[in-house]
Amino acid sequence: MATISATSVRFGSSLKLSSRTGQVTGRSITSVKFVSVGWAKNGFPSLRSSSFRVSCAAKPETVQKVCEIVRKQLVLSPETELTPESKFSALGADSLDTVEIVMGLEEEFDISVEEDNSQNITTVQEAADLIESIIQKKGEA
Amino acid sequence: MKKLTGLQKQVLGLYRGFLRAARSKGPEDRKKIESYVSSEFRNNAKNVERKNFIYIEYLLRRGTKQLDQLKTVETVSTFTVPSRSGN
Questions:
Q1: Nearest-angstrom CA–CA distance, B70 and B36
Q2: A70 with A89, same domain?
Q3: Known catalytic residue: A94?
Q4: Which of A14, A78, A129, B9 has the fewest CB atoms within 10 Å around its CB?
């Protein structure tokens, strides 16, 4: 019981934080977003295990790097808002742009993305998650 | 993104192939190849009738051949701009 109330307090405060910070830097947004995603997707009782998995998803550095590459590739103006949940298509990217983004990510992170996977990437978050899982696999191999 | 058709996937696969091949070239050639390939794909994406499968398949075959050439040949000069017929 004590743990549940503790987590609920934490979520409450971080949600408030998200509305307050608004759109400052990628890093602060992402860390907040992780929490809110885990909160929205999963019911209250399973919070502990799910929040563990979510925080494991992608490091803020990775998300940040992905954001930079997407910005560069799509030639976004600095004032264009880019969050981990931004859809590439909503930013004006067509399928060819998406291919270019994935190729850019491959070079930046020195990885190789399977063709099937690359076509499922539609957001920065998805890209970051995929990259981390690939890097992890590479480390194990 | 919407679900892609088989043909669209092939086109994107070819595009990836070109960008991959371009990586193995020198920085200057690479830039040239990338800008040419990119404009070619975008041009066709815009101008070729979506349902013109025969022409799209022809372009795919031609592109695949050009890619093979690009992979084997050291220079970019063989990678000439073909005159576009039809459409």
A1: 13
A2: yes
A3: yes
A4: A78
B50 has a chain A CB within 8 A of its CB: no
Domain regions of chain B by residue span: 6-72
What is the rounded distance in angstroms from the CA atom of residue B24 to the CA atom of residue A113? 17
Q: CB A95 to CB B13 under 8 A?
A: no
Is residue A34 located within the same domain as residue A103? Answer: no
**What kind and span of H or E run contains A74?**
helix A60-74
Residue after which a domain boundary falls, among A10, A25, A56: A56
pLDDT digits (tens, 9 = 90+) for A99-141: 999 999 999 999 988 877 777 788 999 999 999 999 988 888 7
Contact B4 A119 (CB under 8 A): yes
* Single pTM value for the model: 0.68
What own/partner pairs with CB < 8 Å and gap ≥ 24 does A25-28 have? A26/A60, A26/A63, A26/A64, A26/A67, A26/A82, A27/A60, A27/A64
At what angle are helices A26-41 and A60-74 packed, to 10 degrees?
A: 110
